[in-house]
Amino acid sequence: MKVSPKYFNLTENQEKQQKMNTKIYQKTKPNLLNNSKNEHMPKKRCFNQYCQKGGQVDLIIVQDKSFKKNGNSKEKIYYCSKCFERYRGNQYCQYCKQIYFDTNEVDGEEWIQCDECDFWLHKQCEAQHGIENIDEFIKRKEKYECPRCRLRSKKNEVIKYMIQQCIYFFQYFVNYHYLQ
Questions:
Q1: Which ranges constitute the DSSP H helices of the chain?
Q2: Which of 38, 60, 95, 173 has the smallest C-beta neighbourhood within 10 Å, fewest atoms?
Q3: Are residues 166 and 115 in the same domain?
Q4: CA end-to-end distance (rounded Å), the chain
Q5: 37-70: pLDDT as tens digits
Q6: Is residue 98 a contact partner of residue 64, using CB atoms and an 8 Å limit?
Q7: How many separate domains does the chain show?
Q8: Angle between helices 12-28 and 81-88 (to 10 degrees)
Q9: What's this model's pTM, rounded to 2 decimal places?
């Protein structure tokens, strides 16, 4: 687990993931992106408050179901093309969707890195929405998993449990009929 207030260098896994995301995006053109040539993009500010472009620029619309702005999970998020590339490369806090860059652009917050997928999140966002005692968690140097990895782990546990139950009932069924 890494905690970093300043610099973000892409790890090898993140670079591979970013390249893979770009290839997948080019092949499938997911519904997250509203970028048809005929459609005029709205003039709004980039959602990334630390965007270097500033002002009004042509934006890409993202509808992230996990993001709830003003309590509405269907609300759209607007990013400039540079910030969208970072979003697509999973370089944002999963909770507040703040984009981070791999240079010394800093938002003044501490970030924490997932030990499973190398994803970075605001430490404060994790404390607010996820692990409340994150500082103690860090001090104990436990393995940190981001919300996505925690969800994946829970799903795997449920699947394992279901398989065990199926095996148990199958054995019971076979033994019951075999003894009859």
A1: 12-28, 81-88, 123-129, 134-139, 147-179
A2: 38
A3: no
A4: 56
A5: 434 454 577 888 778 776 556 666 776 655 555 4
A6: no
A7: 2
A8: 110
A9: 0.54
